Amino acid sequence: MHNVRDEKILIQFGKNLKRLRNEAGITQEELSYRSELALSQIARIETGKINTTICTVYTIAKALEVNAGKLFIENLVKS
Questions:
Q1: Could you count the other beta carbons within 10 Å of the beta carbon of residue 17?
Q2: Any residues with CB less than 8 A from the CB of 14 and at least 6 apart, and which?
Q3: What's the structural domain count of the chain?
Q4: CA–CA separation, 49 vs 59, rounded Å?
Q5: Tens-binned pLDDT, residue by residue, of the chain (79 aa)
Q6: Separation between Cα atoms, residue 73 and residue 69, nearest integer Å
Q7: Domain with 39 in it
Q8: CA 67, 28, 51, 74: dihedral to nearest 10 degrees?
Q9: Domain assignment of residue 59, yes or no
């Protein structure tokens, strides 16, 4: 059975989010404002502390003005 809370995946997802946010030139505070998510939630996602929902991923992608798929990188996909 697959572990639904894979720490490596959460950490890598958070790093990818941070990279995209930095490429967009915005702070965590700005992303929080644009997405209407708590700043602490953004910080916990970026550090891999929480396993966020699909709806939150979509909200973040919209705030970053990217396709939600861009938040996932190839090495996150497991067969």
A1: 23
A2: 45, 46, 47, 48
A3: 1
A4: 18
A5: 555 678 888 999 999 999 999 999 999 999 999 999 999 999 999 999 999 999 999 999 999 999 999 898 755 544 3
A6: 8
A7: 7-65
A8: 40
A9: yes
